[in-house]
Design brief:
single chain; alpha/beta; Rossmann fold; Dihydrodipicolinate Reductase, domain 2; 2 domains; six-stranded parallel beta sheet; 17 strands
């Protein structure tokens, strides 16, 4: 008798939900059994787009959680709903995939963690770039001592997020989006944590944050659209489009991380890693392991150079998570770890106001 596949409920039917569905469909141990969203038409459209036939559709999340055979919930709703949705999934005893950002406040994150720990369920947060081929190669090089001991990391999320994005209306507001660093820059923060630790599947723990915010787009009703190479009217961002932070980690590594929603150019994700025996710049390596090196060694791999979610390695992320569930182990990218990345965002917001460094972890009382 064939082993029962783990049933998946995908909650939310937007852009990223399709990639979650495709990844779970391709995994031999899982089956998408339900989709839920505010509109039934959106559920049906997503099912049609991904070729799902035998799937239940819901507009009531509570009823969807009670659907027979649901073992995993994939939270793909707008970010201001993630905490509420994840807590409900944990209380229903489901393992959870949580899209980033996980929450809009430290209090929400603490409530999520309490619910997950009480339920004893597995979690993974979609810092999906940890499975990008370049990231995977860099992490292997660092673990293999290719650059010696890392002492400095620089990562940047440079992307003119605008009204072309279906999630823009929620994300642009101070109440629902909170900040540029939370909406998109958290990917760069997580990358800095990932590369600052030498362990193959380890992320460094931040202990202090200092930063500034600025830019030009806040409250201005104009944006640049790099798809059309044109300027256009659009609802304004309600927060600064540029943030730059310095982070000190518990292992002594210093990081500089920025998010830039005001850049007039296509999306890029620059990476620089400095060690006492070598340097990595994007996919170029200078290492003590290559005696006589006269030029950069270029790694022919896939870079994190596209904002299209279909370009992101969701398959590797979901396969990893299913393996964690089946073998009863925690992911290196679970909720508890992801909170460390998100705390940098909220510490930075404090630092912009006080003009002082902020110690981590934040008060978790």
């Amino acid at each position: 008798m064939a082993e029962r596949r783990l049933g998946v409920l995908v909650h939310g039917a937007g852009w990223v939900a399709g990639e979650h569905i495709r990844a779970f469909t391709a995994n031999p141990h899982t089956k998408v059994v339900a989709i839920s969203s505010r509109k039934l038409s959106r559920c049906q459209k997503k099912a049609d787009e991904t070729g799902l036939k035998d799937v239940a559709l819901y507009t009531d999340y509570e009823k969807a959680l009670a659907h027979e055979g649901v073992d995993i919930v994939s939270v793909c709703t707008p970010q201001h709903l993630h905490a509420e949705n994840a807590i409900a999934a944990a209380q229903a005893g489901k393992h959870i995939v949580i899209e980033k950002p996980i929450a809009n406040s430290p209090a929400e994150m603490r409530a999520m963690l309490r619910a997950v720990q009480k339920a004893g369920v597995k979690t993974i947060v979609s810092f999906v770039l940890r499975w990008n081929p370049l990231f995977d190669t860099i992490k292997a090089l660092i673990a293999d001592d290719a650059v010696g001991d890392v002492y400095c990391v620089e990562t940047d999320y440079q992307h003119d997020i605008g009204s072309w994005w279906t999630g823009y209306e929620d994300a642009r507001t101070k109440g629902k989006g909170i900040s540029a660093m939370l909406v998109g820059g958290c990917h760069a923060l997580d990358a800095a944590r990932w590369f600052a630790a030498k362990g193959r599947y380890e992320a460094a723990t931040p202990i202090e944050v200092f930063g500034y915010a600025g830019g030009w787009r806040k409250d201005r009703d104009i944006e640049y659209n790099y798809f059309t190479n044109s300027w256009q009217k659009a609802p304004p961002l309600e927060y600064d489009d540029l943030e730059m932070v310095l982070i000190r980690f518990d292992n002594g590594v210093i990081a500089k991380v920025s998010v830039n929603f005001g850049c007039v150019m296509p999306y890029v994700f620059p990476i620089e890693i400095f060690g006492n025996r070598g340097t990595i710049k994007d996919n170029r390596v200078w290492s003590h392991k290559f005696p006589g090196q006269k030029n950069w060694i270029e790694i022919p791999t896939i870079l994190p150079d596209s904002a299209d979610v279909s370009h992101h390695p969701f398959q590797a992320q979901m396969d990893h998570f299913i393996d964690c569930i089946l073998n009863n182990r925690e992911s290196h990218c679970n909720l508890e770890d992801a909170i460390k990345t998100h705390e940098i965002v909220f510490a930075a917001l404090q630092s912009y106001e006080t003009r002082r460094p902020v110690a981590l972890p934040l008060d978790r009382a």
